[in-house]
Amino acid sequence: MKTFCLAILSVGLLQAGSIAVIDLGGFGGASGIGYRINDSGTVVGWAQTATGDNHAFTTSGNGILKDLNGSTASESLAYGVNNSGSVVGTSYIGGQAHGMLWTSNGTTDLGAGSYGLDINSSGQAVGGNGQAFLYSNGEMQSLGTLPTGNWSSAYAINESGTVAGYGSIAGGSFRGFVWTANSGIKALGTLGGNNSYATAINNAGQVVGHANVASGYDHAFVTSGNALVDLGTLGGVSSYAYGINNLGAIVGYSWLPGSSDQHAFLYYNGQLRDLNSLIPADSGWVLQQAFGINDAGDIVGSGTFNGQTEAFLVDPIPLAAPLSTPEPATITMFAAGLSAVVLFHRKRR
Fold it and tell me: Which of 37, 229, 301, 317 is the most exposed place for a label (fewest CB within 10 A)?
């Protein structure tokens, strides 16, 4: 276990409203990813060990990463956390994926060939085992597949039990979907291409993800009624949305002009912003991918700190105020704080 390496030693060094970037630490390996954060600031994700294996983690109140990898698992990934601190993810045991629930009552194995991907505050968990499933009160319920499809997976669930994910359809394409107990599974559209993928949902039922545009590249989207709204890119060919909070703030990542580098983004109040433009320019960080955001504006993801890949927490983005670039004085004070410390591109399929 490794303690947080805080990007600042004293909050008093910063002006009010300053944005801090926190290194979440790791398990001695080369990289880490913060994937979700709940409203009390508990972060889950995974980090590499010294041997190169990924281990699921959750953070505790004293800033220590807790390794969730069981003694029988070779690797594990944590994908979701609710406001009670219960965690859902996937462990690899004997070469097979097993969806896992880690709660204060112990660990629950959701079965071989399953993937645990999100959990709400009622303890309802979702994922996939060939078909999207809902796990609730000890019972596993299949959510079925889209018409003409034979595979599906659930990636997100909100507090009312509405589920989002994606599944196959005829011809080898994929469609995002929304499932409710009353309406069953309903396909989302695309942005003019063949595929769409839903990755997160908030309590208002807004769904985010990414979908093909006519050129075949992916663009991040958010739903508005039954339509998909294209969030655009940061100048490159593709973008991907992975998190949305209850204020409608969206995070993800995008290729930059030239499509050789990725940067994390925040979309809020109609603005798509490079997350790196909202932190001090001399922080040493390049925020590459953002995956989760809570209602306080705390954002987690993966980036590089002085060239080393690390899981990060941006704490916080002030969503109640217009987004702006840090003032020079704030940047200078942030740098002073830094001097006082010992301090995948992978689409989920």
Answer: 229
Instruction: Name the region of 123 (left: φ>0; alpha: ψ -120 to 50; beta: rest).
Output: left
The CB-side HSE value for 216 (13 A sphere, CA atoms) comes to: 0
The structure's pTM equals: 0.87
Residue with tokens 């309406």: 183
Residue 137: alpha-carbon gap to chain centroid: 25
**Top-confidence residue, 13 or 83:** 83
pLDDT, average across residues 73-96 = 97
Q: Identify the burial level of 246 via C-beta atoms within 10 angstroms of its C-beta, where 0-12 means exposed, 13-18 middle and 19 or more buried.
A: middle
Residues facing 209 on adjacent strands? 198, 221
Q: HEC states along the chain?
A: CCECECCCCCHHHCCCCCCEEEECCCEEEEEEEEEEECCCCCEEEEEEECCCCEEEEEECCCCEEEECCCCCCCEEEEEEECCCCCEEEEEEECCEEEEEEEECCEEEEEEECCEEEEECCCCCEEEECCCEEEEECCEEEEEECCCCCCCEEEEEECCCCCEEEEEECHHHCEEEEEEECCCEEEECCCEEEEEEEEEEECCCCCEEEEEEECCCCEEEEEEECCEEEECCCCCCCCEEEEEECCCCCEEEEEECCCCCCEEEEEEECCEEEEHHHHCCCCCCEEEEEEEEECCCCCEEEEEEECCEEEEEEEECCCCCCCCCCCCHHHHHHHHHHHHCCCCCCCCCC
Confirm if 215 and 207 have CB atoms less than 8 A apart. Answer: no
Residues 240, 248 contacting (CB under 8 angstroms): no
Q: State pLDDT tens for residues 148-167.
A: 999 999 999 999 999 999 99
| Average pLDDT for 83-99 | 97
Amino acid sitting at position 81: V
- Quick: pLDDT tens for 284-338: 999 999 999 999 999 999 999 988 999 999 988 888 655 554 444 333 333 333 2
